[in-house]
Amino acid sequence: RAQKLDERLAGYKGVWVFVEYERGQVHPVSWELLGEGRKLADALKVELAAVLLGPPDGAVRGFCDQAIHYGADLCYLACHPVLKDYRNAPYSAVLTELVNRYCPEILLLGATTLGRDLAGSVATTLKTGLTADCTGLAIDPENRGLAATRPTFGGSLLCTIVTLNYRPQMATIRPRVMAMPSADAGRTGRVIEHPVTFLEESIITKVLEFIPDDRAAEANLPFADIIVSGGRGMKRQENFRLIQDLARVLGAEVGASRPVIQAGWVGADRQVGQSGKTVRPRLYIAAGISGAVQHRVGMDKSDVIIAINEDANAPIFDFAHYGIVGNAMTILPALTQAFTEHLRARKQAC
Amino acid sequence: MHILVCIKQVPDSAQIRVHPVTNTIMRQGVPAIVNPYDLYALEEALRLKDRYRARVTVLCMGPPQAEAALRKALAFGADEAILLTDRAFAGADTLATSYALSAAIRQVHQGLPVDLVFAGKQTIDGDTAQVGPGIATRLDMQLLTYVSKIVSLDLTAREIVVHRRSEGGVQVLKTRLPALITVLEGINEMRFASLTDMFRAERHRLTIWSKDDAHIEDVTKIGLKGSPTAVSKVFAPTPTNRRAEIIETQSGQPVDLAATLVAKLLSRHPDVA
Ligand SMILES: Cc1cc2nc3c(=O)[nH]c(=O)nc-3n(C[C@H](O)[C@H](O)[C@H](O)COP(=O)(O)OP(=O)(O)OC[C@H]3O[C@@H](n4cnc5c(N)ncnc54)[C@H](O)[C@@H]3O)c2cc1C
Ligand SMILES: Cc1cc2nc3c(=O)[nH]c(=O)nc-3n(C[C@H](O)[C@H](O)[C@H](O)COP(=O)(O)OP(=O)(O)OC[C@H]3O[C@@H](n4cnc5c(N)ncnc54)[C@H](O)[C@@H]3O)c2cc1C
To answer: Which residue in A268, A333, B73, B189 has its CB near the most CB atoms, within 10 A?
Structure first.
């Protein structure tokens, strides 16, 4: 099925990243994608563009500069009151218009609730291919095509998906899979404004209200610096206190494997892995977790991994950096104690 | 009111094993189940049926064996079941899948207008979450994804209000029917099938549609031909050449193990904690 690209499609040039703006903030996955998009654009020797949609206020415009600092050469900006909150219909319409007008060869979006909703509609209208939830992107030097890799069957295998004779090639990418690029405040670029003409009356779906989550209670695993996770090996809900004690001393978030969530020991927002969150903290401590692929794919990009498991042959020791073979119920309190002492000593030294 | 629920039959991924040498998926003997996320969609539809005396039709595209998934949905209380099955559908990606399913839904609509379409959040095999948005876009229905609650339904005004999960909170959305809703897991708890419904499901005559029955004429839009994406390779993740450095001490006591680990960690990676 390898074919030479239609002449019309060969006219599609450039890499685009959809920048997800909502209520005054940009989702960090957009910056991660600009970092990755930069590499793809360089490999193709084309420009990298950010696409930013939102209400007509200063905040949105300010993010154009930030997108350029993170690597974009230019930013397409569409501001209009109908784009105030995310809604599928107006967002899909504007993004589709932009693609049809400027013809990028690659369009990347975050695999968030917004990105997946939007990408699914836009790819359908454009009648092009969309690869979901990717963990790796590369350019095939032979045909300049995008090779998008995603885990399948719970991470036990990976598959690389290509989009044949269709453009743009679209993909969604999970937050925290790509590294955060560093911003270069010296970079400059162009901003191209796209006029939005339709009226609120023509949009059927209305946002009545936004109910923010209770931030204090909510875990923010994807962006935590340190995570202490427990698995089925913790045996009982009461024993999870040992995980929480260590987390408190380290200023860490508490994570868990899926059986722990299923048993109801901690909330579902704390699940790490394939069907939970992808994390990349500086330090990940796993106690009583065997290291099944579905858990591993969510955390093996952590800088340092420490595993505590009573089974010396547990798979987690194949990818952890440090291991202690032993009973988590006695090791965890000892670790909490040792960290407390070290951190205290360090404070005194300063 | 007429509600259509899309359900997919998937291999029970908890039981899938990968061959350690050949890296192929060992499907033999792996039971097929209804995609777990679709049961939440079905239950939500059945609750509306109970409240508004709606009619519930379930639709599944798949091989003839997928009949089992539809019978299960009938046993829970669905009224009608359609199996869309044709060799020509094989190898479909999400674009081709949403094309075939929306053609079938249009056909159902001709018989009895469809007010609401329900789909799962995603499947456990393809796992893309793209088919729901694809169908809504093709049928020009309002799309409500990641719905965690149906707040109200006004059949006279043909308006529905839902909670939609988004980053950092919940959007309260109001829209007009017809709409396509993908529901989140945990939105409800599946009922038990009643004995009467189980018997009825056994005897029920499924509607079996080929591509022609769904009035699909353009075969370049379905199956492998209609799929812009292609799998170019399948491979095992590269094993890290790492093997954890196992901390050992003379005493083997937790206190000593912990102290040794922390000292090592903080001297080599001073900025981790
Ligand atoms: C479609 C699908 C999606 C999935 N998604 C996820 C996901 O997102 N996240 C996830 O985590 N899993 C996921 N799973 C489940 C995954 O396959 C594993 O079953 C799960 O990760 C195992 O959790 P565990 O390591 O806590 O439990 P187990 O595998 O049971 O391991 C427990 C470990 O604790 C050790 N242990 C026991 N007692 C002690 C003790 N006293 N001290 C120290 N160690 C002890 C044991 O040696 C063992 O290694 C998914 C599965 C499927 C099929
Ligand atoms: C490992 C793997 C990776 C894949 N990756 C991609 C990819 O990146 N891009 C791509 O375009 N295709 C991909 N595919 C193909 C894709 O899985 C098929 O197109 C499939 O028919 C539908 O997609 P899904 O399973 O992801 O469904 P999803 O979009 O996750 O399903 C959402 C909902 O749509 C409904 N639904 C989905 N399929 C059916 C059906 N057959 N009958 C009735 N209702 C249904 C269900 O309600 C379901 O809950 C992949 C397939 C596999 C096996």
So the answer is: B73
